[in-house]
Predict the 3D structure of the following.
Amino acid sequence: MYEWIKALHVIAVIAWMAGMLYLPRLFVYHSVTEIGSQQSETFKLMERRLLKAIINPAMAVTWLAGLYLAWAGHWFSAGWLHGKVLLVLAMSGMHGFLARCVKDFAADRNARSQRFYRLINEVPTVLMIGIVILVVVKPF
């Protein structure tokens, strides 16, 4: 059963990361569209569906499966897991920030520039690199 849950965890992580990398990219393009335009409305729909249908469920499955794996594998005392959990909490915070951005765009309240979204798009990548290194290398 452990291996099946691990496979589910990896699948959920891939889906979560795909969404976390794509959503800020949508914001880059949405931030330069005219409010009320057809293009802006299309971006709103894409952002909402990506968040609700992919990113949110993938995050929930990632957390649930990951907590099970940590419990079943007796990893809670492992230093690498503490680091991983810290980075996953940061990723979850980033998720919350992006969800807030979706709401702001939906209400035509975006106050951030295209450049901001280009920079923020790198945060999930950096967090993911740290998480993968901790899980694979287990440096401590």
Observations:
- The chain has a mean pLDDT of 98.
